[in-house]
Specification:
The chain contains four helices and ten strands. By secondary structure, it is an alpha/beta fold. It has one domain: Dihydrofolate Reductase, subunit A (3-Layer(aba) Sandwich). Helix 2 links the parallel strand 3 and strand 4.
Length: 159
């Protein structure tokens, strides 16, 4: 089971200038809970935006730079190599946009936070073809004092 996990805006926005474009504490808590204990696969830029390996997870970084090193992480040069390096039956793909674009063709599940906002972004999640995905769960939350935007946790599984 390969799961893509992402928070995306109404127009599939992911981020800008290698950073998130919203702050949703409940999304971050859920992300930590869902991915803890699993292998997480991400591109070098996504890893750089985090600043350090995510704790309680095996961090697998994809970089085209054969000399790239990240302490406490496994570094590989392709998504295929990352999937070969994982020993987890359910690794999570954390992005960024280029990694998502490759992974969406092989993923079994999309674990999405749909943010009810249209924001300026420079990276986007790939198109989701609803002919091949089915929604299996959805939970909606309204904006509040800690969450500037309404959002939904939505799970899609490959048909």
């Amino acid at each position: 089971m390969i799961t893509i996990i992402a928070a995306i805006g109404k127009n599939r926005e992911l981020g800008k200038n290698n950073d998130l474009i919203w702050h949703l504490p409940n999304d971050l808590k859920r992300f930590k809970k869902v991915t803890s204990g699993h292998d997480v696969i991400m591109g070098r830029k996504t890893f750089a935006s985090l600043g350090k390996p995510l704790p309680n997870r095996t961090n697998i970084i994809i970089s085209r730079n054969a000399n790239y090193e990240a302490e406490g992480c496994i570094v590989v040069n392709s998504l295929e190599a990352a999937l070969k390096a994982t020993t987890d039956a359910n690794p999570y793909i954390l992005g960024g946009a280029q990694i998502y674009a490759q992974a969406i063709n092989i993923a079994n599940k999309l674990d999405l936070t749909l943010v009810d906002a249209e924001l300026d972004a420079d990276v986007f999640f790939p198109e989701i073809d609803m002919h091949i995905w089915k929604e299996t769960s959805s939970e909606h939350f309204e904006a509040d004092e800690k969450h500037q935007y309404s959002y939904s946790f939505v799970t899609l599984e490959r048909k």
